[in-house]
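Structure in, sequence out. Go:
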């Protein structure tokens, strides 16, 4: 019972902190969006408020928030500023994964604990190289004495201007077989450059620039994982199971905020049956997105990453994507012509929500994976 009470209290406190910050982030969001300006000030606030270390176990000095509480935090923040929510989700899942290992894989504690302690003590920001380092991997790792020489270009590295460590990988072709090596890269290394490439339709404040790695040496003992390129590995089953509910909480938050804006605008006009129908369809789509998000979180909470949890999470991811996008589309329709003006802030949410389409597993691959699972066919190379 005490554990339950502590968890509930942690979630409630994190929720209130996120709501307080969201007011500030909402006031800054227009400027970040209009000027392609990275959310530097928001990162400073996230650090001061303890949200950077919210997912680190209490025993290591962190906030001790579980995935469900972290999802709620990201949903609230994204409702105010989608860019801040998405960038924070990329750091948060890179914290939540080693935190899960610390809780559930005791032999892994010596490996993950130093990183988690640095997040607390130094307030370091972790970057994900996202689609660059999906199952197929990217970049090259040339074997040299004592380690590897890394050359790569990583795209969609959200939060890059504020990052300290890039959690990434590269492909080695030793022994005639492609092997993905996983390691961390300090952004301060002279071989690492953040390029100014992020000019986009939406999510303009995330700073998801390309990062180049030109000849960085990574020692053998700094490579915690090697896996076959181009196929699912148990480590990636864990990573994907935990990461995607957090990332898609952002899109749910954007959809919820679009709904609130549209309802406020519509309430100031005469109500007719057509208006009610649009509002009803909007709320139905939003309810579907919420249910799908809950389904994803429940898959994480089984604490058994597997091909089955990947299937559940990716089905949920697909349903959140489709219904969150539909919610915002209907919010635009409900608000009418007013939605076309930037000052209503609906059009920014319409642009930001489009990014939900582009994370793995995209719809055709997700459908193939789910179908293979249903028909009991191999899924190892469906990604």
């Amino acid at each position: 019972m005490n554990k339950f009470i502590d968890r509930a209290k942690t979630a409630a406190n994190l929720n209130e902190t996120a709501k307080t910050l969201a007011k500030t982030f909402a006031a800054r969001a227009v400027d970040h969006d209009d000027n392609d300006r990275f959310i530097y000030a928001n990162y400073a606030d996230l650090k001061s408020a303890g949200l950077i270390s919210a997912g680190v176990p209490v025993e290591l000095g962190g906030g001790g928030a579980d995935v469900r509480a972290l999802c709620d935090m990201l949903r609230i923040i994204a409702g105010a500023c989608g860019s801040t929510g998405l960038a924070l989700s990329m750091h948060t899942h890179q914290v939540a994964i080693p935190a899960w290992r610390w809780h559930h894989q005791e032999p892994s504690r010596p490996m993950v604990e130093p990183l988690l302690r640095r997040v607390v003590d130094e307030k370091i920001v972790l970057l994900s190289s996202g689609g660059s380092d999906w199952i197929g991997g990217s970049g090259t790792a040339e074997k040299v004495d004592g380690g590897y020489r890394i050359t790569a270009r990583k795209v969609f590295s959200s939060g890059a201007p504020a990052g300290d460590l890039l959690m990434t990988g590269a492909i080695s072709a030793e022994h005639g077989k492609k092997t993905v090596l996983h390691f961390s890269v300090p952004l301060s290394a002279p071989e690492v450059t953040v390029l100014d490439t992020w000019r986009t339709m939406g999510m303009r404040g995330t700073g998801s620039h390309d990062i180049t790695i030109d000849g960085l040496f990574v020692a053998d003992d700094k490579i915690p994982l090697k896996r076959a390129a181009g196929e699912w590995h148990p480590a990636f089953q864990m990573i994907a199971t935990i990461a995607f509910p957090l990332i898609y909480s952002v899109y749910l938050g954007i959809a919820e905020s679009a709904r609130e804006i549209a309802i406020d605008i519509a309430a100031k006009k005469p109500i007719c049956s057509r208006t009610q129908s649009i509002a009803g369809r909007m709320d139905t789509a939003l309810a579907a997105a919420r249910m799908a998000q809950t389904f994803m979180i429940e898959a994480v909470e089984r604490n058994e990453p597997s091909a089955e949890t990947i299937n559940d999470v990716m089905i949920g991811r697909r349903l959140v994507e489709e219904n969150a996008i539909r919610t915002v589309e209907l919010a635009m329709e409900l608000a009418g012509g007013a939605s076309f003006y930037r000052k209503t802030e609906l059009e920014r949410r319409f642009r930001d929500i489009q990014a939900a389409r582009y994370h793995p597993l995209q719809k055709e691959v997700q459908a193939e994976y789910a179908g293979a699972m249903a028909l009991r066919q191999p899924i190892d190379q469906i990604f």
